[in-house]
Amino acid sequence: MKAFLILEDGTVFEGTSIGSTKDMISEIVFNTSMTGYLEVLTDPSYAGQAVVMTYPLIGNYGITPDMESKKAWPDGYIVRELSRVPSNFRCTGTIQDFLKEQDIPGISGVDTRALTKILREKGTMNGMITTNENYNLEEILPKLHAYKVGDVVSKVTCSEKYVLEGNGPKVALMDFGAKNNIAKSLNERGCEVTVYPAGTSAEEIISSSPDGIMLSNGPGDPADCTSIIKEVKKLYESDIPIFAICLGHQLMALANGAKTYKLKYGHRGGNHPVKDLSTNRVYISSQNHGYAVDAESMDEKIAVNAFENVNDKTNEGLSYVGKNIFTVQFHPEACPGPQDSGYLFDRFMNMMGGTK
Amino acid sequence: MPRNHDIKKVLVIGSGPIIIGQAAEFDYAGTQACRSLKEEGLEVVLLNSNPATIMTDKDIADRVYIEPLTVEVVEQLILKERPDSVLPTLGGQAGLNLAMEMEEAGFFKENDVRLIGTTAETIKKAEDRLEFKATMEKIGEPVAASLVVENVEDGVKFAEEIGYPVVLRPAYTLGGSGGGIANNIEELEEILANGLRLSRVGQVLVERCIAGWKEIEYEVMRDGNGNCITVCNMENIDPVGVHTGDSIVVAPSQTLGDKEYQMLRTSALNIISELNITGGCNVQYALHPDTFEYCVIEVNPRVSRSSALASKATGYPIAKVAAKIALGYTLDEIQNAVTKKTYASFEPMLDYCVVKLPRLPFDKFISAKRTLTTQMKATGEVMSICDNFEGALMKAIRSLEQHVDSLMSYDFTALSKEEILDKLEIVDDRRIWLIAEALRKGITYEQIHAITKIDKWFIDKIAIIVEMEEALKTQELTAELLKEAKRIEFPDNVIARLTGKSEAEIHDLRHEHGIVAAYKMVDTCAAEFAAETPYYYSVFGSENEVIETKGKKKVLVLGSGPIRIGQGIEFDFCSVHCTWAFSKEGYETIIVNNNPETVSTDFDIADKLYFEPLTPEDVKSIVDLEKPDGAVVQFGGQTAIKLTEALMKMGVPILGTSAENVDAAEDRELFDEILAKCGIPRPKGDTVYTAKEAKEVANRLGYPVLVRPSYVLGGQGMQIAISDHDIDEFIGIINRIAQDHPILVDKYLVGKEIEVDAVCDGEDILIPGIMEHIERAGIHSGDSISVYPAQSISEVTKRKIEEYTKRLARALHVIGMINIQFIVCGEDVYVIEVNPRSSRTVPYISKVTGIPIVPLATKVIIGHKIKELGYTPGLQKEADYIAIKMPVFSFEKIRGADISLGPEMKSTGECLGIASTFNEALYKAFLGAGINLPKYKNMIMTVRDEDKVEATEIGRRFEALGYRIFATRGTAEALKEGGVKAIPINKIEQESPNLMDLILGHEIDLVIDTPPQGADRAKDGFLIRRNAIETGVNVLTALDTAKALVTSLENTDIRQLTLIDIATIDNR
């Protein structure tokens, strides 16, 4: 079946329908990872967005147990080509079936490079995937303009708290749309990880007396999360060590008076160099964010730049003055992507007093 | 960390002659690194014995020494030039071994010279099997169970412990030379004994066999601050067991999930960190196909063939960055020259698929075993880029220059299912074609995978291609079907064949439906950033990114494709210099080529680079878009010449000599007319089409005769026939290599072979010099030792050669380059071959005369006259030096190849000996070729009857040098009659002790074996020659070569070589 991708600027790409055949409007973003399509599909940070994979051959190793959450989150999936026969010793199915099961509409056969260039030049924009050959641009384009990703954190967070047992430090993980490997990385280091829904109050967390608090990644515009930001501010004021990733990093910055802004087309991929400003070492990181913290807007007395993107010099991490708090924009938990910055979990462990 | 300003003058060591396992990739890496060093204001001293390279050019380095790569030479050079640093990681294994040897001897320290880039300690840790294993164990990186042995006994014991099969890897050898897989004790003993001898340190690793596992490589970079990145990973379609140089390789890996990908990436970074590498490094893995278990196979702490491939596959210039790191820069300080927005500490992301195919030499070595093993056999490779795997594979296939254009090109249709299943067990160069046939016959993916261990994903891709063949054969050719066929890169001619239409019909149908090639950019970043580097590949069914540039005059330079015997790196030298010359003249330059190892496919050589197959259709798509003002074909060897006619049909003017005149040199009748008109004699001969006609001509002329196809490359298919029987056999072979052109039969003349390259502007000619071959006519010019200036011809003859060259160049209306081969008998001069194009000898003669022939020819092509370029027309005055070009062979790598020299070219590379005397030049040339004698002063002679008188004379000279001569009965008698002591020895087929025992006894310096002429030449003595070569003994099959060698040995007292800086030669 034919499918169409209609962009906010009126560009239309024709391709073949994959997955669900429902019409879907979302924000179109691209990811440059060459492996890890399943981790991308199951990363809750993509809620409200359709992902374009710039690598043209997707689905080569099929569906494996490497899910970063229970389900797939993107509102759309845009690829050049899906592999007809997947091959991997852990493969349990094809990506074609997976997209159908997960009811994700998608389109294949798209010149993803041309699409990526449009997004790069004009910035991230909204779009719609449809299988309706008789689509009417005049009707659709206003809808595309009007679309907002909106409050997606509440959609992706867990409904109830749960615990991953461990003998080490107790960590409270705020789930704003956490990837599994965050909890797993801590759990593997011995931590007992309690995962809390995003709406949990700071009081509840603090009263559980955790040894550390982890603020997770998540989808959407951080500035929209006003009530969460208030709670994060309270967590900041407690003296509990905090480590935050991605959305968590942005929320902590917002809670402390800094501003965030939308990047033209975001950073999504597994090849971004970030420099640890305390050592001048550069690490290749996994990234997935459309917003960034405006480091200039942060009061230097509260937090200082800890990491910076080597390419565009955007902020990649903050270290809070006089506090056991550090936050990063990139993803030390990898999955997909390079594991080079996994040492940050060890740093967090040390802040919590070691493995006990 | 900014750059270290203590480094001011750097010695860069190149890799020497092109041999299998060490080819053009090191010229590419070295050239890029030298340019990178010079851009930092450093003084670069270059040492490489290979005159065909671009790196040995005065444009690339400040001081250029084309001298043998020996410890003595490096020592002397360091004392002469006093560099403060040596960069050893760019010259392949040869350069690295040399530097290590000197470091171990303490020479660098004594002379205040430091090794920059990766340290000696690191190199040792990575290269020494024991240290490597200990290091891997220390950081918990798994390696296959293995033991380093120094004798056969220990190897057998260990193999029994871990069980057969076992893999054998000699330490410090090139391209896995001497290695292999042993399935039982007999094989183990044979391979191990051989490997121990070939290893520089007498060590061989005996290892658990992990054949069948996935073979994955990572190219990684690390700087002095500990920052590391991976440039690219690559997956070998052929699992472990086939040398990666002979494997079909795809980038990035296709069948690895993120878990496997990151697991190996992290491992690679851990390894280079532990080894403390500063620069580029290659890590090879074996990954179990059904678990996460993996083994580190090896680490190369230097640039390599794989790093060249990774650079071209990603656009990331590994050698350039490695050079900057050697100077102290960190990755985040080095700008990405492609995007100019990102830095070298950025991992390239591909949004396309790259396929590399090896170019194997079995078309040259018909008798050789085609089996692929851990011993590399490929002479070169091609790479292709597409947005799908099938397309990349199809493009790579037609880039091979091997008369293949699809998965139907090798015909296995006659084989039954069972026969195919049996044949699949044998791993050879035609395996993917056989798999295609297996799929056509309904053999399942599972069965194919069970035998070949090739991942099902790749088998399915082959199946998609096979299904398309079937669809084209059986279905109506709709626009949809055509579009899909083009998306996976079926060439028009193949579609035409399958659909029963003409190629023109397919072409027109495509254009009618707008199915045309589009071009995408290789930008290192999957379009995330706007890049400025115009490096393109084609796809179908996508938007075109290339903007047709206007303003400047635009020239298309056609490259020479994969390196193969007969068409080597020389043609890349010519293409690159031609491009630079056009650029200087204000032209916009476009290069089309498909060889990832070369300088011409570096992203900053031409204004635009199209990484594409060199077929008429692929070139036409570029022409349609770029509309060049002209094309140059005379610098890209036969590959480019073959495109002349097609280019003319496209309406592209051929710059320089016109196509009709190229034809006139190849068309026998036209050419005879021209020779007659010019009053130039040539050996009598005729053009024929069948064996019957050939025999008639041969009998009329009288045997021996030379038989060859027209439009030959490196003498392919050329043979000397001495009987009707030979003619039948040779014509059969010629027809097998698919010749559409007629066959030439000429009287074979015995005389001195002379060669000239000349530039002609339509009126005047310029001959930089006359070269004379040491071997008499009958041995291919590329395999002959070539001497400049010619030593044994008279002034009258020289003038005659000059005059003939002038007449011929004018008569053929040559504008640009011409290469002519003459035979001189007494004072008679005959023309045997004319090539109205650049030749193999052009880089060599340019360098030793100081005359930049390619830029000159390019200027002439543009319209300048020789006189206005500051040269006096005619034969230039002779240089003050004697320069000898020595062919270098890779026979030990090709099992079963016949090594006897003849009219068909067999050498893979060359080296130079340059000195003020003939004897020193000859000595240097032999030294450069690795013939470092005497050692044991034992030799074997076995010569054909007609050579016996001459052989006696040679024997006498060897005897005088103290050599003990063993000879087969007939030869021994002849020697004795001539008063030379000879020890008679049984022939190989006679009882022991015989020749074979002698050879295997390892105390023989040299075998002189001249086989009879004719079809039997390959058979007689074949075993002696093969065994000698495989045990590392020098074998000479021409008495002229033997004479040259003995002359050189008589002059070995020239210990203090005089080193000559080529950059100072200016013969104007």
UniProtKB/TrEMBL annotation, chain A:
The active site is at residues 246, 331, 333. Gene3D superfamilies: 3.40.50.880, Carbamoyl-phosphate synthase small subunit, N-terminal domain. It catalyses: hydrogencarbonate + L-glutamine + 2 ATP + H2O = carbamoyl phosphate + L-glutamate + 2 ADP + phosphate + 2 H(+); L-glutamine + H2O = L-glutamate + NH4(+). Pathway: Pyrimidine metabolism; UMP biosynthesis via de novo pathway; (S)-dihydroorotate from bicarbonate: step 1/3; Amino-acid biosynthesis; L-arginine biosynthesis; carbamoyl phosphate from bicarbonate: step 1/1. Its EC number is 6.3.5.5. The keyword Ligase applies. The keyword Mitochondrion does not apply. Keywords: Amino-acid biosynthesis, Arginine biosynthesis, ATP-binding, Glutamine amidotransferase, Ligase, Nucleotide-binding, Pyrimidine biosynthesis. InterPro entries: Anth_synth/Amidotransfase, CarbamoylP_synth_ssu, CarbamoylP_synth_ssu_N, CarbP_synth_ssu_N_sf, Class_I_gatase-like, CPSase_GATase1, GATASE. Residues 1-169 are annotated as: CPSase. PROSITE patterns: GATASE_TYPE_1. It comes from the Bacteria. SMART domains: CPSase_sm_chain. Residues 1-130 form the Carbamoyl-phosphate synthase small subunit N-terminal domain. L-glutamine binds at residues 45, 218, 220, 247, 250, 288, 290-291. It is an enzyme of class 6 (ligase). HAMAP family: CPSase_S_chain. Belongs to the CarA family. Small subunit of the glutamine-dependent carbamoyl phosphate synthetase (CPSase). CPSase catalyzes the formation of carbamoyl phosphate from the ammonia moiety of glutamine, carbonate, and phosphate donated by ATP, constituting the first step of 2 biosynthetic pathways, one leading to arginine and/or urea and the other to pyrimidine nucleotides. The small subunit (glutamine amidotransferase) binds and cleaves glutamine to supply the large subunit with the substrate ammonia. Composed of two chains; the small (or glutamine) chain promotes the hydrolysis of glutamine to ammonia, which is used by the large (or ammonia) chain to synthesize carbamoyl phosphate. Tetramer of heterodimers (alpha,beta)4. This is Carbamoyl phosphate synthase small chain. The gene is carA.
TrEMBL record, chain B:
It catalyses: hydrogencarbonate + L-glutamine + 2 ATP + H2O = carbamoyl phosphate + L-glutamate + 2 ADP + phosphate + 2 H(+); hydrogencarbonate + NH4(+) + 2 ATP = carbamoyl phosphate + 2 ADP + phosphate + 2 H(+). Mn(2+) 2 binds at residues 298, 300. It is an enzyme of class 6 (ligase). Mn(2+) 3 binds at residues 821, 833. Residues 931-1068 form the MGS-like domain. Transmembrane segments: none annotated. InterPro entries: ATP-grasp, ATP_grasp_subdomain_1, CarbamoylP_synth_lsu_oligo_sf, CPAse_ATP-bd, CPSase_dom, CPSase_lsu, CPSase_lsu_oligo, CPSase_preATP-grasp. Mg(2+) 3 binds at residues 821, 833. Its cofactor is Mg(2+); Mn(2+). Its EC number is 6.3.4.16, 6.3.5.5. Mg(2+) 1 binds at residues 284, 298. Residues 1-401 are annotated as: Carboxyphosphate synthetic domain. Pathway: Amino-acid biosynthesis; L-arginine biosynthesis; carbamoyl phosphate from bicarbonate: step 1/1; Pyrimidine metabolism; UMP biosynthesis via de novo pathway; (S)-dihydroorotate from bicarbonate: step 1/3. Residues 931-1068 are annotated as: Allosteric domain. Mn(2+) 4 binds at residues 833, 835. Belongs to the CarB family. This is Carbamoyl phosphate synthase large chain. It comes from Bariatricus massiliensis. The lineage of its organism: Bacteria, Bacillati, Bacillota, Clostridia, Lachnospirales.
